[in-house]
User: Which sequence fits this backbone?
């Protein structure tokens, strides 16, 4: 009877939760303390398959709750010290644009100036991005079409658009859009590239694109549109005039990995 009792007890233990250094295990095997593995580790085993040990330089990656982990290879290039690498890039587009109506004056603008409250911000191009290393260079490329609903020769506007990071100006360009001939509803392609003059701090930053109407020319007091079509003009639509913003952040990684890709 003692021999039979031992077999039954062992069977019940093997089908229960087992704890090492704990009397209240939370999983099938709960180890409270360090674990040393002297041999290989297998995952995704079944009743007829002993599981996979992975390949050289594989990492064991979690697939989330209630899902078995997997062996995977990181596709990361070898990083050389003191070299810049493109660690973040993204691009966005917007068809809403802005139609600045207030004339703010043909003044000069300084690097680092705070975003003026009377400039029109293109909300669809307001984006956040992240810098992960202390040595970085950020590049921004903004493109759009500027459009006016003028039909009078020698009439138009002087306007400017700027790129702001954390509400501080890092790049600006003014442009003149007017009627040199008798053409109706003139437009031009506007391009602005800006670069941070110093490394951005580690963390999350926000970029904005904003435009202002600097001055009117001739008798023009009509509508100026940037990144969309001018009100009442029919020669282009908001798809043709849409704006885009591209962000690229190059950084010198502070930690280096020597990963062998498989």
Assistant:
């Amino acid at each position: 009877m003692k021999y039979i009792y031992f077999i039954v007890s062992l069977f019940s233990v093997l089908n229960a939760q087992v704890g090492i250094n704990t009397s209240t295990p939370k999983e099938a095997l709960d180890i409270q303390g360090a674990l040393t593995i002297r041999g290989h580790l297998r995952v995704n085993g079944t009743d007829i398959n002993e599981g996979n040990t992975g390949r050289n330089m594989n990492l064991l990656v979690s697939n989330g709750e209630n899902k078995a982990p997997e062996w995977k290879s990181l596709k990361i290039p070898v990083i050389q010290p003191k070299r810049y690498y493109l660690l973040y890039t993204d691009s966005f587009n917007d068809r809403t644009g802005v139609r600045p109506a207030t004339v703010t004056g043909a003044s000069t603008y300084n690097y680092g100036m705070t975003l003026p409250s009377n400039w029109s911000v293109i909300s669809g191009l307001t984006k956040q991005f992240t810098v992960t290393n202390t040595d970085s260079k950020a590049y921004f490329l903004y493109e759009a079409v500027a459009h006016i609903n003028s039909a009078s020769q020698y009439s138009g506007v002087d306007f400017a658009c700027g790129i702001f990071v954390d509400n501080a100006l890092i790049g600006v360009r003014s442009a003149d859009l007017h009627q040199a001939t008798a053409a109706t509803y003139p437009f031009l392609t506007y391009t602005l590239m800006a670069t941070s003059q110093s490394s951005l701090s580690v963390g999350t930053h926000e970029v904005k694109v904003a435009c202002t109407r600097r001055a009117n020319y001739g008798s023009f007091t009509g509508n100026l549109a940037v990144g969309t079509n001018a009100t009442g003009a029919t020669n282009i639509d908001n798809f043709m005039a849409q704006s885009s913003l591209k962000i690229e952040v190059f950084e010198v990684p502070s930690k280096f990995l020597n990963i062998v890709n498989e």
